[in-house]
Write a structure and sequence with these properties.
Blueprint (H helix, E strand, L loop, with lengths): L21 H4 L12 H8 L9 H4 L7 H9 L3 H9 L5 H7 L21 H14 L15 E5 L3 H12 L3 E5 L8 H4 L8 H13 L3 E3 L10 H7 L2 E4 L5 E2 L12 E3 H9 L18 E5 L3 H12 L4 E6 L10 H10 L2 E4 L1 E8 L5 E14 L5 E5 L5 E4 L2 E4 L3 E2 L3 H5 L25 E3 L2 H4 L4 H22 L1
Parallel strand pairs: 1-2, 1-4, 2-3, 4-16, 6-14, 7-8, 7-14, 8-9
Antiparallel strand pairs: 5-15, 10-11, 11-12, 11-13
Length: about 475
């Protein structure tokens, strides 16, 4: 007689996240995904294998104990899950929305070897949102003050993370922010429909509860130099990002109607140009818009142009779709909303009208050659393939470099040929004693989570350095 073995319960499929339909969202700036409900979150959490040696954690730049918080969601302790995340990450609601989990924690999830990985980012977002909306966030419990002071220059992801980690350890931390709002790229670069600014502010409020002070409208290099900060503080962390836009160097880039993505998105996001007439910030509302580039910033600019009323938006990218650096989710959303991807194309001239405004682009078709230094196949112009296409607005989104203000006003700081600050990869220590740096200022334009990881490593190194001195 054979014994009846219990049947294995089928693991549920990866849970999709409800979102606005494309035809509706392409004309508003409300957040696209609605987030998980508690029921969906628990179903998704039930997929986790709770591995004893979780590879997902090794893929997380800020070292979150991922199985621990997912287990709490599975058990229905949503506020506890949020508290678990906040032990490691001061910005969980941000990370759950904009971090490329598909290439980090989810990329090494065991389930992903034979199917879909656990939706770690969506679960992080759910836990953070639930705690915020239901008052379940426990007050932070920093260590007693240790009498040491650290200045953080820049309130983007790297600066906020470094400040939070040091404040937890008992340091007196002051952030100096050049703009009138804290948040760096989180407020000026990422659109409302991807990252609502009220959520960013709530995350920043958490730092205030930790005792972090934020000095706005404070341009270091003008107001004070790093040298002067070192007279007042025990250490300085530089996290000023990469806010200087790059251009193509082709004829016509100085025409009216041609914008850097930095200016275009800053006007819309930080200065609320999208919310006219409640805000009177001027912004180009082109009818036919070309966005040049293939990264997340290019996608943000293209999707913003649609929401500002453009009839047609083209995204020109010189490589193929497979080489696009933007997140797959962002490309998918852009196409759903009606952005036209003109792949393997590159503008070679911007053509103006009698008033000095752009009216068209001269474009050449490309083909892929041998791989270049990035490992991607090099785009090569196809002879005789030029054509002209009418556009009344052009947004250039091909990358950024650090603003030279701090490097030019700080003695003893080594700068790379790309304009970035040279710093140790593990500690963030620069060539200047007691000065640390991280994020886009060091790496060039990268992701929010990689900048946060740099801020965390620098905080750990600053604490070690100052602990050994006292």
């Amino acid at each position: 007689m054979t014994e009846n073995k219990p049947e294995k319960t089928a693991r549920p499929p990866r849970q999709p996240m409800p979102e606005q339909p494309p035809e509706e969202r392409r004309r508003n700036f409300r957040e696209v995904p609605f987030g998980y409900t508690p029921e969906i979150a628990q179903t998704e959490a039930s997929r986790c294998l709770l591995c004893k040696k979780p590879m997902c954690r090794t893929g997380c730049p800020v070292e979150i104990d991922i199985p621990a918080f997912i287990k709490l969601i599975r058990e229905g302790d949503f506020a506890g899950a949020a508290a678990e995340i906040k032990k490691f990450n001061a910005l969980p609601a941000v990370c759950g929305r904009v971090c490329p989990q598909e290439t980090q924690c989810e990329a090494v999830c065991v389930l992903g070897k034979k199917g879909d990985p656990v939706a770690i980012g969506r679960l992080e977002r759910f836990a953070a949102d639930y705690a915020r909306e239901h008052g379940g966030e426990p007050p932070p419990q920093p260590d007693p003050p240790n009498g040491l002071r650290v200045a953080v220059v820049g309130s983007g992801p790297a600066g906020l993370t470094c400040a939070a980690d040091l404040a937890r350890l008992g340091y007196s931390v002051t952030i100096y922010e050049a703009f009138h709002k804290a948040g760096g790229v989180l407020v000026y670069g990422i659109p409302e429909f991807r990252l609502p600014k009220a959520i960013v502010q709530k995350e920043i409020d958490f730092l205030s509860q930790l005792g972090v002070k934020v000095e706005l409208n404070s341009v270091i290099g003008k107001l004070d130099t790093v040298d002067e900060l070192l007279e007042e503080y025990d250490a300085v962390f530089l996290g000023t990002g990469a806010g200087l836009p790059m251009f193509m160097g082709i004829p016509g880039e100085n025409l009216g109607g041609v914008y850097s993505a930095n200016e275009y998105l800053t006007r819309s996001n930080l200065m609320k140009a999208y919310d006219f007439p409640n805000y009177d910030t001027p912004i180009a509302r082109g009818r036919r818009v070309a966005v040049i580039g293939g990264g997340n910033v290019a996608m943000d600019a293209a999707r913003t142009a649609l929401r500002l009323g453009a009839e047609e938006v083209h995204l020109l990218y010189r490589r193929s779709r497979a080489e696009m650096p933007a997140r797959a989710e962002e490309i998918h959303h852009a196409e759903e909303e009606g952005v036209i991807l003109d792949i393997l194309t590159a503008p070679i001239e911007m053509i103006g009208d009698e008033q000095g405004r752009v009216r068209a682009l001269k474009i050449i078709r490309m083909e892929l050659g041998e791989p270049d230094a990035s490992g991607r196949r090099r785009p090569v112009p196809k002879a005789g393939s030029e054509y002209t296409q009418d556009f009344d607005t052009v947004v250039v989104a091909i990358g950024n470099t650090p603003n030279p203000l701090i490097p030019s006003t700080t003695s003893g700081l080594t700068i790379s040929k790309h304009g970035t600050v040279v710093a140790d990869e593990e500690t963030g220590l620069t060539t200047r004693e007691r000065v640390y740096a991280g994020g886009d200022l060091v790496t060039g334009a990268a992701t929010v989570i990689s900048a946060m990881g740099a801020g965390k490593r620098a905080a750990r190194a600053i604490h070690k350095m100052l602990s050994e001195k006292t």
